[in-house]
Amino acid sequence: MSKGNLLSVREDVRVVDATLRDGGLCNDFFFADDFVQDLYENNVKAGVDYMEFGYKASKQIFDPEKFGKWKFCDDEDIRAVVGENNTPMKIAVMADVGRCDYKKDIGPKSESPVDLIRIATYIHTIPAACEIIEHCHKMGYETSINIMAVSKNRTEDIQAALDIFGQTPVDTFYLVDSYGAFYPEEIRKMSKMYLEYAEKYGKSVGIHAHNNQSLAFANTIDALQEGVSYLDSTVMGMGRGAGNCQSELLIGFLKNPKYNVEPILAQIETHMMKLVEDGVKWGFDIPYIITGQMNSHPRSAIAFQKANRKDYRTLRLEVFDME
User: Fold this and answer.
1) With a threshold of 0.90, does the pTM exceed it?
2) Around Cβ 58, how many Cβ atoms within 10 Å?
């Protein structure tokens, strides 16, 4: 049964800005300091509930010389932006299973400006994800579990994963459309399944949508209407490949008067257009349509664009052969 309607206010809704984290995949996290400072301040003014600063990636795996600081999200770098963060907005970072050194890099919440650790995992790395959840919980953080690429997984495997994660102290299950392959009907069905397990274990549910088929916003608000409460978005949809649900669409849509789209438009005017002019690429495009329609990882489309190719029919055959 749908929860709310297009005109109602849902007090359980939380908007999560992922511009630095997902958008950082477009420019190796090399954001100017004034971009980040203004994004933080504009998110606060816009009523955004959480701002994700980036990844807690291991410096033993990733060379700090090749990436900007938001690949690693050291506490002192976050503090340089937020101070003591005396605002209603909470701070989030992502810990990617297999790509972080969580025991070394994620210390007590009492010593950190971070509130929420978002753990990203694939189905086949569930035990490692559970260890990170337990560690972060003991350290005092809120946690979410983002099961990636579920459009490739069998329903019974997703259900088994939700049962396992339900028995951990994680706070939120995230439905993640990594490949931008889901259609609204499927999102509604998946949302109901996630919500069923969330109710069983006393968890919340979030959605992270990709825009390969121009459906990220539609899928997000369909999930919202089913009862999903944590809604990811990025300014101008900035994110890997086709990007994400656009903050300016989502915040402009939500009826709660606490949300204000004007500061998001200010961020676009001041900073986002310059990124585009500087050649940073993301967003809906033909190669991403192809990978989205074929439920395939966008790496082939990203490589296609980097090579300045225009032979779309050949790309489609290449993706088809990979499947």
Assistant:
1) yes
2) 18
